[in-house]
């Protein structure tokens, strides 16, 4: 029997570190581990390392290569010695909302940013966080700015020294706000615009490059951002759109061409293979359902049953911006319920409205990708929220495409492992992704549901945009 060649993929996500050890040839998962992160939007990166040590304990024997998929956009500031000088500011921290407006205006507006980097910054982007931290005491000690995946990759290297040799990749660099996917280059002038001076930036490694070696003798692959890693783990094909319902909601697709959307809806990211990954992201996804279930006094199974058996939402509309919102760009917003009557103030109607509101936001995301010329033949529904029967039943009508369910898996870690296998063997392996059928679709008037949602959003946008909306 041929001995397995083992590779490891790490998902350093918002909520946890997950580690998969896989067969490099087939992608079969041999071992796995997990450890939680603090529930905060500003975190000491040492917590990620602590979680890695717990999650990987006992898993790494025989691993020949490893790569890290990390949460995008998080800002890690380092001094000359490589020490962290400020808590990492994560993608879902909206403290930089005012800084975002300043930066977008200072370069000349959304069109100027789209032309420069292929995206219009929102508070999630690293460049806005750099402006936000500029006048804080820690900024004076900063020599370099890196991303979570960059920091973890460098920390894994046995010969790391200070900030020398830190690397990133195209996928993660494209979410900073100072790297252009179209030109494959840094815009250091945008770092200076945001921070007032230059900072050291990681070298952008090639997709299959080996960037170091661990203390346990494994080659370290370039790694990438979480969405690019998920696309690699899913083996997205042209015409596929991945719609993920996790902490955030995302819709993304592979493209052979760079995109530049001046509306700011579609971020013109790069992928982990040398191509592109246009992406739309919302801050609110699966937790909309769990929060509504809690409000209704239901567990998730009861909530799901109520939503799927309800005859409809009867005109009740939920704008699900419970944690502010990234797309549409409403960082100060809160959720809003419209259409309350004695008839609609029922648990089943409220549950249905929550699922419809969640999916309408993601339908807007899928439509934004269509507007960039991307074909949408098939939607791959994934993430914790994809397990919901009501989501599965309503998604085909509201998203306007065939829906399939990839087998539940840690696709970010799986994509990172596939990238590690690529670095180890020199060839990107073909790993099969089994897909299943969703819950039978419910026939609904999707056009009416989406029109109601858009009308309520349009009529209340000024209220939702107010910085005083959160009191």
Automatic annotation (TrEMBL):
Keyword terms, alphabetized: ATP-binding, Carbohydrate metabolism, Kinase, Nucleotide-binding, Transferase, Xylose metabolism
Residues at the catalytic site: 226
Leader peptide range in chain numbering: none
GO biological process, alphabetically ordered: D-xylose metabolic process; xylulose catabolic process
Tagged with keyword tRNA processing: no
Residues that hold substrate according to the record: 72-73
EC category name: transferase
Residues passing through the membrane, by range: none
Pfam families in UniProt: FGGY_C, FGGY_N
Repeat among keywords: no
Annotated site, Important for activity, chain positions: 11
Family according to the record: Belongs to the FGGY kinase family.
Function as written in the Swiss-Prot or TrEMBL entry: Catalyzes the phosphorylation of D-xylulose to D-xylulose 5-phosphate.
Protein name as annotated: Xylulose kinase
Organism field: Kribbella rubisoli
Top-level taxonomy: Bacteria, Bacillati, Actinomycetota, Actinomycetes, Propionibacteriales
